[in-house]
Design goal:
The complex is a heterotrimer of chains A (about 375), B (about 80) and C (about 325). Chain A folds into two domains: about 5-65 and about 175-245, Rossmann fold; about 70-175 and about 260-300, Rossmann fold. Helix content of chain A is about 35%, strand content about 15%. Chain A contains 15 helices and eleven strands. Chain A has helices spanning about 10-25, 40-45, 70-80, 105-110, 120-130, 145-160, 175-180, 195-200, 205-210, 225-240, 260-270, 300, 315-320, 345-350, 355-360, and strands at about 30-35, 55-60, 85-90, 115, 135-140, 165-170, 190-195, 215-220, 245, 270-275, 280-290. In chain A, helix 1 packs parallel to helix 10 (about 225-240) and helix 5 packs parallel to helix 6. Chain B has one domain (about 5-65): SH3 type barrels (Roll). In chain B, strands 3-2-1-4-5 form a five-stranded antiparallel beta sheet. The longest helix of chain B has 12 residues, at about 55-65. Chain B is elongated and about 40 Å long. Chain C is α+β, with helices and mostly antiparallel strands and about 325 residues long. Chain C is built from eight helices and 14 strands. Chain C has helices spanning about 15-30, 70-85, 105-120, 175-185, 200-210, 225-235, 250-260, 280-290, and strands spanning about 50-60, 65, 70, 90-100, 125-135, 140-150, 165-170, 190, 215-220, 240-245, 275-280, 300-305, 310-315, 320-325. A seven-stranded mixed beta sheet of chain C has the order 9-11-7-12-10-13-14. A four-stranded mixed beta sheet of chain C has the order 1-6-4-5, with helices on one face. In chain C, helix 1 packs across helix 3 (about 105-120), helix 2 runs parallel beside helix 3 and helix 4 (about 175-185) crosses helix 7. Chain C is globular. The chains are: A alpha/beta (about 375), B alpha+beta (about 80), C alpha+beta (about 325). At the A-B interface, helix 1, helix 5, helix 6, helix 8 and helix 10 of A face strand 1, strand 4, strand 5 and helix 1 of B. Strand 3 of chain B pairs antiparallel with strand 8 of chain C.
């Protein structure tokens, strides 16, 4: 697989890890680095990278899994819609098993609701076209990597005169949560910045993190060699006392990002305050559908209430998402809380910190 | 943020293209990219092309990585 | 037969049923051989000793796919369950539940495949049954096959027999069947199509025994894939299994399709693959035997068993790191995140 296999080369990985160890040797204390992208979390686990990094580096996972940080109340709204006669729910596979307060979309499907997994948002518009007497709702979850495809589908619906299509929008954006985390208890030495969000938004958005908060930022690709190299660039900044935005993934990410995608987002969406499961409200960190496209806003079309964002009090996901605790620190982990019965955000998606630990990690609770 | 796959464009339309990886072909929407040509590499996420991949930069990156020498202060 | 679709009357036991049997089902299932007398049960000779008995139901959508159809799966799958127990497959039964509206032409595709698969394997279709359910109450065609085989003397195959030092060998590439199915559902096109690997493995098993390979465990990684079967073996035997990602055969098209769809190939279904666990001293011989068989040309050693204080399956990744493999929590779903 061109441009995938090359960046998984074992010999090169070994060389890069040696280089990283050398650079890390220059540190006079441990460096805490946070990756804010669930895909980074998954890639690190899948390739077994965590065990290969030098001991001076502490890697923590941040709130970068969009499914995980979507309030449980959103799933309840989706379920409410799924139960309406004539509604077809269309969604990415990631949302199917996420539990709401008392059910899930998978379960509703079993009870007779029309819930369909689609590969791409325009496919959902196609379903609307093919079923003119039904209402098709697409569950819009994801960051700036995904939001353009959802926006594009809305534009296609408008162009095609498709009126029985709407989006239940819960999109979130970076780097607002990254800034929110800087005021927390965790002392962060660097951010591993998301690869494909950055392909859309470019480098600018991360500059305040470096310039105002003095936190090094490196936009890093998802393949193992990218991750090792990105971490090395961060550690080098820390060792040299610099705080800049650097781009490891320059074969894909342009400094200005994808301007056309940004324009599309600005046309179809507006920034809004958003509640992040486990983190609370972060101002201007979400997207809602712009007034000009109100007919495609499922919340308006179906006069839905605001999603309920109450949490289970025993769940420590908030602290895990802030990088303060780890899955194995949680009393519920692997006991009452597992991928089949997730209690909190971190276990909800296969990309969540706890789910990744459960799937790929050792599963031995610290206090067991 | 999310998984995207590098695919090579084999057919181009106005808003869509057909791209392939290892003989696997799938259509991708290119409405957010300018000037897509057959032979270009695009990153595909959920059926949408979100960016191009520049082969020249990719090769440079690999070359850079290969040149990291066993000495103090190797290149980044 | 003038009917072109299955109707409720075909399942009612009357003239329509006997016509369906006489004009469609029996000629197709027994083409090239003798159509048996229809009785309430079949009387069959069995050799002395233990028999092996298995059952499986087949519910696949689409039921005709690149490389085969539900008929191939229904016969090969049940033969393989017997073969994985070291048994010689002898007889299978076949039960159909057909949905009203199923085109008879499509039904015949499955019937012809079952006939071909059974004849090639030397297995007799001993008995059968057909029911019809109203439209909307069944997904076009469900098939159940049960199989009886002759247990191999002196051989007990069980996952419990996995022993530290055993090597795991697979007979070929993973993911072909699952991706062939997914490709139809997801509209993937291929330059060289990915086709299902559905195949009967009993002659490959015979070859291993003929060569006197010491076989500890045999399993076919169907639903849930290589990962699930490995975890099951580790849990049953209480051992550790270490897999080598780079050694696991996979076609580039399957690898590419998995990337595009966001699937992990270790969990994708296979229908013509088997893994064996054999002591290290027999590993090279087993490999050679497999590679000289048509169904084992791409055979490879992909892992090893080690003593562990608790059951564990790990994979050494392509960059040399280690990750743990667990059972799939539920459905295998494509992911974008």
């Amino acid at each position: 697989m061109k441009y995938i296999e090359d960046f998984r080369d074992q010999k090169l990985a070994a060389k890069l890890l040696d280089d990283l160890a050398r650079v890390a040797g220059r540190l006079n204390r441990k460096a805490t680095l946070m990756e804010v992208c669930g895909t980074h979390t998954m890639s690190i686990y899948r390739h077994g990278l965590k065990g290969m990094f030098p001991p001076q580096i502490k890697l923590v996972s941040g709130p970068g899994c969009p499914v995980c940080v979507t309030p449980m109340g959103y799933v309840d709204l989706a379920i409410e819609l799924a139960r309406k006669p004539g509604v077809i729910i269309t969604t990415f596979g990631d949302m199917i098993k996420v539990p709401g307060r008392s059910s899930s979309l998978a379960r509703e499907r079993g009870l007779g609701a029309d819930v369909r997994v689609v590969y791409s948002p325009p496919d959902a518009v196609g379903i609307a076209r093919a079923n003119p007497d039904r209402q098709v709702v697409f569950l819009g979850v994801g960051f700036e990597t995904t939001a353009p495809s959802v926006a594009g589908a809305i534009v296609l619906a408008r162009r095609g005169g498709v009126s029985n299509y709407s989006v239940l929008c819960a999109h979130k954006v970076m780097p607002e949560p990254m800034e929110a985390l800087t005021s927390g208890e965790l002392k962060l030495d660097g951010y591993i910045c998301p690869a494909h969000v950055s392909a859309i938004i470019g480098e600018e958005g991360y500059k305040p993190l470096a310039e105002k908060y003095g936190i090094p930022c490196v936009i890093t690709g998802f393949e193992p060699l990218d991750i090792i190299r990105g971490v090395t660039m961060l550690v080098r900044q820390v060792a040299e006392g610099r705080a800049e935005v650097e781009n490891e993934y320059d074969r894909v990410v342009l400094p200005g990002g994808n301007k056309k995608a940004q324009a599309l987002l600005a046309d179809v969406f507006v920034k809004a305050d958003a509640v992040w499961r486990g983190l609370g409200l972060i101002p201007q960190s979400g997207l809602s559908i712009a007034p000009g496209y109100a007919q495609y806003d499922a919340a308006k079309k179906f006069a839905l209430a605001e999603p309920d964002s109450r949490e289970n009090p025993a769940c420590i996901c908030g602290e895990i998402l802030k990088g303060l605790k780890e899955p194995l620190d949680c009393k519920l982990f692997g006991k009452t809380c597992d991928p089949e019965n997730p209690i909190g955000a971190c276990m909800v998606s296969s990309e969540g910190t706890c789910a990744a630990e459960y799937r790929y990690g050792e599963r031995r609770p610290a206090h067991a | 943020m999310c998984v995207a796959v590098p695919m090579k464009v084999v057919e181009v339309g106005e808003f869509d293209c057909v791209a392939e990886i290892d003989g696997v072909r799938k259509s991708a929407n290119i409405m957010t990219l300018d000037d897509v040509k057959v032979g270009d590499y695009i990153m595909v996420h959920a059926g949408f092309a979100i960016a191009k991949l520049d082969p020249v930069t990719a090769e440079e990156t690999l070359t850079l990585m290969r040149r990291i020498v066993e000495s103090e202060g190797g290149a980044a | 037969m003038r009917d072109d679709i299955i109707m409720l009357g075909h399942g009612s036991g009357g003239k329509m049923t006997s016509d369906l049997l006489a004009k469609v089902i029996l000629p197709a299932l027994y083409a090239g051989g003798e159509i048996p007398e229809l009785e309430d049960c079949a009387r069959l000779p069995l050799p002395a000793g233990d028999i092996c008995f298995t059952t499986d139901s087949y519910v696949v959508d689409p039921f005709i796919f690149p490389g085969g159809d539900i008929g191939d799966l229904a016969v090969n799958g049940t033969i393989n369950d017997l073969a994985m127990g070291g048994a010689k497959p002898l007889y299978i039964s076949v039960g159909f539940v057909l949905e009203e509206g199923l085109p008879i032409e499509d039904f015949m595709v499955a019937l012809k495949s079952m006939n071909r698969a059974a004849r090639e394997a030397g297995v007799k279709i001993a008995c059968g049954d057909t029911k019809v359910v109203p439209r909307g109450r069944g997904d076009k065609i469900f098939i159940n096959t049960s199989g009886i085989g002759m247990a191999r003397k002196g051989v007990t195959i069980s996952s419990r027999n996995a022993a530290p030092g055993d090597m795991m060998i697979i007979n070929g590439s993973i993911g072909d069947h699952g991706i062939a199915i997914m490709s139809v559902r997801e509209g993937l096109k291929f330059e060289s199509p990915v086709v299902s690997d559905t195949a009967a493995l009993h002659t490959l098993v015979d070859a291993l025994y003929e060569a006197e390979v010491e076989v500890h465990v045999m399993r076919d990684p169907t639903r849930g894939g290589l990962a699930t079967v490995s975890v099951e073996i580790a849990e049953t035997a209480g051992v550790g299994i270490r897999l080598n990602e780079r050694a696991i055969p996979m076609t580039p098209a399957v690898a590419g399709a998995c990337e595009v769809l966001g699937l992990d190939p270790m969990y994708v279904a296979n229908e013509g693959k088997m893994i064996i666990l054999t002591p290290e001293r027999d590993a090279q011989k087993a490999l050679a035997v497999m590679r000289s068989h048509p169904l084992g040309k791409e055979a490879a050693i992909i892992g090893e068993v080690y003593a562990a204080d608790r059951p564990k399956v790990t994979v050494t990744s392509s960059v040399g790191g280690t990750r743990i493999v667990n059972k799939l929590p539920g459905e295998l779903l494509p992911r974008i995140c």
